[in-house]
Amino acid sequence: MSLQLFISILFGTLFLLLLIFRVVEPTYVLIFNKPLYIHWYPFSKKLKLSQRQILINDFPFYNRLSAKKKMYFEHRIIEFVAKYQFIGKDINVTEQMQILIAGTYVMLTFGMRNYLVNLFDKIIIYPFNYFSIVNQAHHKGEFNPRMKAVVFSWEDFIIGHSTSNDNINLGLHEFSHVLHFHCLKSNDPSATVFFDAFNEVIKYYSDPVLNKELTRTDYFRLYAYENQFEFLSLILEHFFETPHVFKSLHPELYAHVAAMINFKDE
């Protein structure tokens, strides 16, 4: 193959890819309400056996995935752990902490292509609830955009992770705040899908008729109605913790949330 032919093929391929991302994908998103593709990893990374065993023992979502999607899930965990710094405050950061925290974030964003965001660069872990200088109060967890940090009490994180039917999951709650902020600022395909469906979800917070429908069943705890940010986080906690109850009581809202994060039942 001549150099001139190779360059022509290369530029033709690049032009085709540009056309797909600039023209084809926005149209696809508009029609099908999801990105053109989610997972593509030419050099997929695998967890060590000890790391995978943590998921097998303690992460039901991972165990429900197909073999191929387990590979995707593991690759994303490795990328998450490599991108973000884990900092222990009066506690040693263990492999279990990294895997379970990363797994929670990957689970929440598994239907999104651009899942690693720059709104935070560190995970800070305390052994128990801690005193936050932001509002001079004790916290179990928080997302602090100024510090670019997500903060957890490990005691409360692991309780939330281990108890799967009380609709209280600290990891999901704080990472939902991150996702919310990211999708309000970004215009990538997954964020566009999220934002469109979010506008339908938030109606259940702002519309008196729809809001009355929610409060009638008493399914969501009162903290959901503090503001739209807490509403979204609690909605997502319920979505992952008791999906069958959620779908039974509020099927339309459940469908909007599933569309928002491009979630597919595995």
Task: Sum this structure up briefly.
InterPro entries: MtfA_fam, MtfA_N. With 266 residues, the protein is of the alpha/beta class.
Q: C-alpha Rg, in Å?
A: 20 Å
Count of the domains: 2
CATH superfamily caption of the largest domain: Glucose-regulated metallo-peptidase M90, N-terminal domain
User: What is the strand arrangement across the widest sheet?
Assistant: 1-2-6-5
Main beta-sheet annotation: 4 strands, mixed
What can you see in these coordinates?
There is one protein chain. This protein is an alpha/beta fold. The protein has two domains: 1-32; 49-260, Glucose-regulated metallo-peptidase M90, N-terminal domain (Cyclin A, domain 1). It is 59% helix and 9% strand. It is built from 13 helices and six strands. The strands form two sheets. It has a four-stranded mixed sheet. Strands 3-4 form a two-stranded antiparallel sheet. Helix 5 links the parallel strand 1 and strand 2 (122-126). Helix 4 packs across helix 5 (95-108) and helix 7 crosses helix 8. The N and C termini lie far apart (45 Å). 32% of the residues are buried. The model has no long low-confidence stretch (mean pLDDT 89). InterPro entries: MtfA_fam, MtfA_N. GO terms for molecular function: aminopeptidase activity. This is Zinc-dependent peptidase.
List the helices and strands and how they pair.
Blueprint: H1 3-32, H2 49-58, H3 60-63, H4 67-83, E1 85-88, H5 95-108, E2 122-126, E3 130-132, E4 137-139, E5 141-144, E6 149-153, H6 154-162, H7 170-185, H8 189-201, H9 203-206, H10 208-217, H11 228-241, H12 243-249, H13 251-260
Parallel strand pairs: 1-2, 2-6
Antiparallel strand pairs: 3-4, 5-6
